[in-house]
Design goal:
Elements lengths: L1 E4 L4 H13 L4 E4 L20 E3 L5 E3 L1 H10 L11 H29 L7 H23 L10 H16 L10 H11 L2 H5 L6
Parallel strand pairs: 1-2
Antiparallel strand pairs: 1-3, 3-4
Helix pairs in contact: 1-2, 1-5, 3-4, 3-5, 4-6, 5-6
């Protein structure tokens, strides 16, 4: 298989981690979607990463769709529950984590614009999204919905989202008053799959 994406994308990191945890061999094609000569449009008309190219040449894009495809392969460990409602709950938390990633990406792009063109209103809106979502995740850890010792699509997505906030220094004080969430992600960050997919600092 071939995974097309950027080393710094949290969505790509989510898929990389899932494939590493399942022991799936894949070629990584590093591609920056915002560069003029990007390759991703060959695989995804939306020009977004990640895209997964299977051994028979079929292409899947959008990270939740790729997650679903990888689970359908039946390769252990299973990262979604078999029970449909339990699986739906995990997917909803994944969607919340993906929303944090989206808000972080919007914030980074906004801050990359010339200072005079930046919208403080937009930046505030994204910060509020992130804050509300992190508060919800803290509650999920507190009530046992999310567990540090349970590796699934939800916990992987949450850790990737927070890893991106740390990497891009978005919401630098996110850990204040969220001790249970801090403990959960610190546990996940110790896994080899997370260490191997840490984005480059340069």
């Amino acid at each position: 298989m071939k995974l097309v994406g950027s080393y710094t994308s949290p969505f790509v990191r989510k898929i990389s981690i899932i494939m590493l945890e399942k022991g799936i061999t894949f070629e990584f094609v590093n591609d920056a979607p915002y560069e003029a000569q990007n390759k991703i449009v060959q695989y995804n008309p939306l020009g977004k990463v990640p895209a997964l190219v299977t051994d028979d040449g079929e292409v899947w894009f959008n990270s939740p769709i790729i997650v679903e495809y990888l689970e359908l392969l039946g390769i252990a460990p299973a990262l979604l529950p078999r029970d449909p409602m339990a699986s739906l709950k995990v997917r909803q938390i994944e969607a919340l984590a993906d929303g944090i990633m989206d808000a972080g990406l919007v914030s980074v792009r906004e801050q990359a614009r010339p200072a005079a063109q930046q919208s403080e209103t937009e930046l505030l809106r994204q910060r509020e999204k992130i804050s509300r979502s992190l508060d919800t995740l803290e509650k999920y850890v507190a009530d046992g919905t999310l567990k540090a010792d349970e590796l699934n699509v939800a916990t992987i997505a949450v850790a990737c989202a927070i890893g991106y906030l740390n990497f891009r220094r978005v919401s630098p004080g996110w850990c204040v008053d969220r001790p249970k969430l801090v403990k959960l992600v610190e546990t996940l960050f110790q896994r080899e799959s997370f260490a191997r997919t840490e984005p480059p600092t340069a």
